[in-house]
Amino acid sequence: MEQLEGFKIKGKEYLVCRLKKSLYGLKQAPRQWYKKFDSFMTEHKYRRTTLDHCVFVKRFDDGEFIILLLYVDDMLIVGQNSDKISKLKKEMNKSFAIKDLGPAKQMLDMSISCD
Questions:
Q1: Relative to the CA of 27, which of 14, 17, 61, 115 has its CA 20 to 30 Å away?
Q2: Domain boundaries, given as residue ranges, for the chain
Q3: Are 53 and 47 in contact (CB under 8 A)?
C-alpha cells in the first residue's frame, strides 16, 4: 500500500494508512456487509433462523410472514402480502442501493415458477 499523492509526509513515506471503513474487495468486506445487513434486519424485527443465518423471517400479528433469503449480495423475498414486501423494499432502499429485478425466475441455478 502506498500513501496517496498529496498526503505524503516527509520522513513518513513508508507508514501505512488506516481505513475507517471496509473497501470492496478486501477480505473483511463481506463480513462488514453482513453485519450491516443483519443490523438492518434486526432493527426491523426480522429474526435469523438458527440453521441458516442468511435466512430472515418476520411473522406478523395477522398470521402472515415474510422470508428473506440472502446470498452474498442477492436477495429473494417471499411472502403472502405484496404490500408488506413493498414496504420492506422501500425501507431497504433508504439504507442500501438496491435494484428490484422483479419476480424471480432463477436463483443459484434453480428455476422458480409460481402457480
A1: 14
A2: 40-96
A3: no
> pTM for the complete prediction?
0.75
Per-residue pLDDT tens over the stretch 63-115: 999 999 998 888 999 999 999 999 999 999 999 988 998 888 888 888 988 77
Q: Which residue has the cell 425466475?
A: 105
pLDDT in tens, 19-55: 676 666 777 778 888 999 999 999 999 999 999 999 9
Quick check: 79 and 65 in contact, CB under 8 A? Answer: yes
What span, in angstroms and rounded, lies between the C-alpha atoms of 100 and 15? Answer: 43
Cα angle vertex 52, ends 67, 60, to 5°?
Answer: 30
Phi, psi dihedrals of residue 71, rounded to the nearest 5°: -130, 105
What distances in angstroms separate CA 74 from CA 17, 20, 60, 63, one per listed residue? 32, 25, 24, 27
Contacts of 68 (CB under 8 A, 6+ apart): 41, 46, 55, 56, 57, 75, 76, 77, 88
The residues, any chain, with a CB within 8 Å of residue 15's CB and separated by 6 or more, are 3, 9
